[in-house]
């Protein structure tokens, strides 16, 4: 017998309420119940970062979070970065810098990168590499990924100057 628990979230600016089995992860809620399949399932064990989304502005691995455990949280997925069809600067930078091959890791990389720049503690390429180390890329597109993030970081620094 599975017992359902109430789940209330804001997902990409829309309210979501349902009774869910407590074992449903945020990742499975997004992909399987809401058809938000931009968020990818790689390892399902917290090791690859493909499932990274923002919860209250912080990056999290959605395969490790139970949907019912974050009441009233604001969740942003890759779909939420370009709500009106205009690419987010980080998405554009990934295109400009050829920062993907198969693209499977890309939504997680982009969400992680957006949060990283919000966190505000990276200033160098080395720091970007270090703080992006939770997001793996089987295709080895790391140089392009770091280039893309560096490009947006430089824009941020210019805007602040
Ligand atoms: Fe979540 Fe790999 S699917 S970290
Ligand atoms: Fe293929 Fe990263 S682009 S896994």
Automatic annotation (TrEMBL):
Has keyword Iron?
yes
- A Pfam family annotated for this chain is Fer2_2
Q: Describe the location of the 2Fe-2S ferredoxin-type domain by residue ranges.
A: 5-81
Which keywords belong to this entry? 2Fe-2S, Iron, Iron-sulfur, Metal-binding, Oxidoreductase
Alphabetically, the GO molecular function entries are: 2 iron, 2 sulfur cluster binding; metal ion binding; oxidoreductase activity, acting on the aldehyde or oxo group of donors
Q: Which PROSITE patterns match?
A: 2FE2S_FER_1, 2FE2S_FER_2
Q: Origin, by domain of life? A: Bacteria
| Signal sequence interval, chain numbering | none
List the PANTHER family hit by this protein, alphabetically: OXIDOREDUCTASE WITH IRON-SULFUR SUBUNIT, OXIDOREDUCTASE, IRON-SULPHUR BINDING SUBUNIT-RELATED-RELATED
- Protein name per its UniProtKB record: (2Fe-2S)-binding protein
